[in-house]
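Here is the promised in-class demo. Please do not try to memorize the tokens; focus on the logic of going from shape to residues.
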């Protein structure tokens, strides 16, 4: 990771060095008082890294520090990668946003929608319009997550082995066929709900491209961008570099989840386009630079500039925000002043957001408290990596946004 380092002085890029230092000073307290095991923060402007810092441990018990080549579970920060893959196929004419999902996954032909009852006895009706690729990209499909625990359909998913994962032995194709037999929360397009949509989108990518999701990612995205250390499992010395995953124990102290790192050294049977990637911060930085570059970075062009512009516009009907159109459940973003594009949350109204931000800023986060955003108006990208479940434990993202924005003085 020799190329992952600070590339410019703060003043060159419109930042105040003393104010940038506030970021580290603030987040060190999260480690010093035991709220986080450790973290990595990067800030870039105009394609040059102006701030890069690490603090704390990737594994507390052994004392191994966070380093720039530490590997992190990206969880839902995988979703933008899958969305990029789908839009690459869109540009090639292989799929259209209006294509029914059943075109690629036949079991999605006879979907039904929950209207009343319980998880044990449901009343349902047929969908009034097919679920489309656009519905998957925008999380307006009617799908859900079992871990929401807010609706009988969530309970059906959990009863069938889908909460934070899937039943042993399932492939992505197996899971999609199983989900197609479970009622939707609402008619496609009627609401926004954070869901398994991007996992289904990953299966669409596989069928449309004729490649497994890991092969498509590697050959079409990772290799062109130089994301050489990212994948659905770790190899080589990856197990030693992988950060331990933590939760807060009953006493409030950090506790390892017990998730065996050894299970991540083998290629998984189930390839999750919604949350399965593992990689270093440097690789995610390369992805954000491609997005900031409107589809191109380092001599590689993955998407046309207008495609990225379209992906990062609010797609919710009437231009409303998630507070008006979304179900206020667990998500990787706030709802007020935030819309949703094709794979990203999009700031629509910084005043309603109640924070300093630019209209048009877009990004997402992961379940282990990671986050990134791209601010085209300020030419900025920011990423934050740690490993604490769940992401809603602390208001890390809101505080980081404030700390980055207050350091701008140009």
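The designed amino acids, position by position:
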């Amino acid at each position: 990771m020799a190329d992952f380092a600070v590339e410019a002085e703060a003043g060159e890029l419109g930042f105040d060095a003393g104010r940038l230092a506030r970021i580290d000073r603030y987040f060190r307290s999260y480690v010093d008082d035991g709220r986080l095991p450790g973290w990595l923060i990067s800030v870039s402007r105009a394609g040059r890294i102006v701030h890069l810092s690490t603090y704390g441990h990737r594994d507390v018990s052994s004392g191994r520090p966070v380093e720039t080549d530490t590997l992190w579970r990206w969880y839902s920060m995988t979703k933008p990668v899958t969305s990029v893959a789908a839009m690459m196929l869109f540009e090639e004419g292989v799929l259209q946003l209006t294509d029914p999902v059943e075109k690629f996954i036949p079991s999605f032909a006879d979907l039904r929608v929950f209207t009343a009852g319980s998880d044990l006895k449901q009343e349902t009706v047929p969908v009034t319009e097919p679920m489309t690729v656009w519905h998957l990209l925008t999380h307006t499909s009617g799908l859900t997550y079992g871990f929401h625990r807010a609706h009988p359909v969530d309970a059906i998913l959990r009863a069938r082995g889908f909460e934070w994962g899937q039943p042993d032995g399932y492939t992505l194709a197996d899971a999609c066929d199983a989900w197609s037999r479970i009622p939707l929360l609402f008619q496609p397009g009627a609401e926004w709900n954070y869901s398994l949509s991007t996992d289904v989108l990953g299966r669409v990518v596989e069928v449309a491209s004729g490649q497994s999701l890991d092969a498509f990612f590697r050959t079409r995205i990772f290799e062109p961008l130089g994301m050489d250390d990212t994948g659905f499992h770790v190899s080589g010395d990856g197990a030693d570099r992988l950060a331990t995953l933590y939760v807060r124990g009953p006493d409030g102290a950090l506790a390892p989840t017990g998730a065996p790192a050894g299970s991540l050294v083998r290629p998984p049977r189930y390839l999750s386009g919604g949350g399965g990637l593992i990689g270093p911060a440097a690789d995610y930085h390369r992805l954000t630079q491609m997005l900031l570059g409107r589809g191109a970075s380092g001599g590689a062009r993955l998407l046309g500039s207008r495609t990225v512009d379209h992906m990062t516009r609010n797609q919710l009907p009437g231009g409303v925000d998630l507070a008006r159109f979304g179900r206020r459940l667990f998500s990787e973003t706030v709802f007020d002043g935030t819309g949703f594009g094709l794979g990203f949350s999009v700031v629509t109204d910084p005043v309603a957001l109640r924070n300093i931000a630019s209209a048009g800023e877009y990004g997402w986060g992961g379940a282990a408290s990671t986050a990134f955003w791209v601010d085209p108006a300020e030419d900025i990208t920011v990423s934050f990596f740690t490993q604490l479940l769940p992401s809603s434990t602390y208001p890390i993202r809101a505080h980081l946004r404030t700390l980055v924005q207050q350091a701008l003085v140009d």
